[in-house]
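Example record

One chain of 156 residues, shown exactly as stored in the release files.
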Amino acid sequence: MPSSKTPTKPRKTTTTRATSGAKPKTAVRKSTVTKSTRAKPKTTKAPKAAPAPAAKVVAETKPVVSGPVLKKPELIDRVVAETGMKKKDVKPVVEAMLNVLGLGLAKGEEMNLPPLGKVMINRTKDLAKAKVIVTKVRQPKAAAPEEKDPLAEAAE
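Predicted structure tokens for this chain:
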């Protein structure tokens, strides 16, 4: 069935503007605007975003969990057990060693102590009652401990 609508032409609208004054004048200005000349909002498509790169793990970090604190009396006991010397002989040596290490760190000296490793100072901060020294200790990887061979082989 044919449509009863006829193609529409652009509409013309008329508006009247009065000039500023108390009396309207007889001459009225008419403006005509057609629908086709109206400004249309421009629609722009946003550029497509590039796909995100896949995440890769560069290096795994191991969290540092602080264990029990080693205090001076326990350190002295361990040295006595390791050396087999008497406690009264070991105690002044351990205290002197700790004093020398503390003074060296306070002066900012790097230390290379082979069983312990290399001690390097990263940064220091002076506080009211103390000096904070942040250090880095680099230890060589220890070789697998070898089992001591017994002096005599077990009899069969």
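Notes: Residues 62 and 138 are 16 Å apart (CA to CA).
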